[in-house]
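Shipment paperwork, digital attachment
Item: protein structure file
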Amino acid sequence: MDGPRKTESEPLAGFAVGVTAARRHEELASLLERRGARVVHAPAIRLIPLADDADLLAATEECLARPLDHAVVTTGIGFRAWLEAADGWGLRDALIERLGVADLLARGPKARGAIRSAGLQERWSPESESCAEVLGHLLEKDLTGARVAVQLYGDQLTEFTEALREAGAEVVEIPVYRWSRTEDPTPLRRLVGQAVAGTVDAITFTSSPAVAATLAVAAEDGLEEPLLDALRTHVVAACVGPVTAQLLTERDVPTVQPERARIGALVRALVSDLPVRRARQVEVRGISMELRGHAVVLDGQLKPIAPAPMAILRALARRPGHVVSRAELCGVLPSRLLVGGVPWQRDGRPQADEHAVEMAVARLRRGLGRAGIVETVVKRGYRLACDPRLIEPLRAETSG
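Attachment content:
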């Protein structure tokens, strides 16, 4: 386990963040780790290129058969993949020529960059990087009889394309690639379990298929509702934009989103939000102590704490200065500490035995490295040695 370190330049130190991204996950993980986070990589989906797919070839030939009035480029990677596939079929030059006379619309800066790299120029791009704004822009035009090519990006844009058809357009859908669930769901299942158990503090999502795949894996294990409850309370759901967040928003899950749909902006948004949501400040014997996800900061030094001792500390910090009984603390320990691996019940809840509580308290004291922070009250339980009147409010944190 890592030893103490300073935290001024590492605002996410002490927090565990899940990364579900399939593409550019190394970049996202690196940005999070640079800010001190412990990253749990659990890819939810995988990208399947369709360069050899008959549907993509057929759609390309359909674009070349007659002039296009409008073409919507939704992603840079997808547009480049389309041109590469066309090049393999000997159709790239013809496709570039066809797109060059169409009204080219780019959903965002990456799409714009890909268009310009191909020697083309977009006619319009929305500030919001939203497909809804692109659709609104197109629907302002008379689309009767117009031919519109729409590059898809993993999901079928059914509402988008149907709205164009209802407005009288002929729509050519370009299926450049599709998303599929990851071949090995074990890391994602583990991440779902960690979120439910409260040992991960945030999960990042960079696409709506990743959200759908995560919820599907949770549902298969009977954990969809516990996962949603965790995301509503003690686990921050960080989404790169509103389209990614939609499935969670529909389920009343609050999300953190950057102003612009960028990985760097997503990390900055998490840096601003996570310490507020998941940190707690207390004064114990004149010492400033901050509780983070899986660590404690004492006088500016970060000290990692194992899950069971951290669960005890969080329970004590919810009622600082007050005695918490051993029986009550049994209920907060991780389930793996249940007696012999088999739960016994107290008020219908699985409980660990009181010896496990004593062991966790001993480990907590060793981890904190200072005597007198956690006091034993004989025959009653334990408490944090602090004056309850001096405690900072709990802010947005819930039990976890």
